[in-house]
Design brief:
The protein is built from seven helices and eight strands. By secondary structure, the chain is α+β, with helices and mostly antiparallel strands. A hairpin with a 3-residue loop joins strand 3 and strand 4. The radius of gyration is 18 Å and the shape is globular.
């Protein structure tokens, strides 16, 4: 089921409601149902022999912020990383508590339902230079150029600086569905006019194709 269909159903429901409280409750219920249906239709993890360095992998994280990211971006994908090939197998280059390399299968197992989607920019060989990023702290404030990183910012930065490819345009926080998240934003020092790149922005890039 597509988000456009949910939007139409949501408008119909709203027109039949008379109190703001009912509208909010119904809206959250419809969104929650949408996530469940959408997730059931998503991909299981592809085998490692189908992947190559530079592929971008997406999952639904079990972290405490995952639900906020999904609601704000209207996407089931709340975390992402880049595939890196090493002599002992595939790893996911990602920003979690610190920027790390995680064995691919371990990364898959960590996600909710072990669901994974993979996007590819090119079939040509790609080599990711990851060493300078390793062990850098996770960026809870989602800001650019502060020596810290969040997952989709890491991917955006690597592709732009190493491959000369801007996968998407950063958006102000206010462009996302952030109603009800004021306390979270304030606690983390996130302003509504600062530019960010969400996992959904990377996922929706027209420069990528799905495997």
């Amino acid at each position: 089921m597509h988000w456009q269909e949910f939007d139409k159903r949501l408008i119909t429901i709203f027109n039949n409601c008379y109190s703001m409280k009912k509208k909010i409750i119904i809206a959250l219920s419809v969104l929650a149902l949408g996530f469940v249906i959408y997730a059931l239709n998503s991909h299981s993890a592809p085998p490692s022999n189908e992947l190559k360095e530079g592929d971008i992998v997406f999952q639904t994280s079990k972290s405490s912020q995952s639900k906020h990211i999904m609601l704000a971006t209207k996407s089931q994908w709340s975390h992402c990383g880049i595939i890196v090939e090493k002599s002992d197998g595939l790893y996911v280059f990602e920003a979690i508590s610190t920027v790390s390399l995680t064995p691919y299968q371990e990364w898959v197992n960590r996600g909710r339902g072990k669901r994974v989607s993979v996007k590819r920019y090119t079939d040509d060989p790609v080599k990711i230079k990851y060493h300078k990023y390793l062990r850098k702290p996770y960026d809870l404030s989602f800001k650019f150029n502060n020596g810290k990183w969040y997952c989709s910012e890491l991917i955006y930065d690597v592709y732009k600086k190493q491959l000369g490819v801007e996968l998407c345009k950063p958006h102000p926080v206010s462009d996302y569905a952030i109603i009800g998240l004021d306390k979270v934003l304030k606690k983390r020092g996130i302003s509504k006019d600062q530019l960010v790149v969400a996992p959904s922005d990377i996922y929706d890039s027209k420069l990528l194709r799905e495997l």
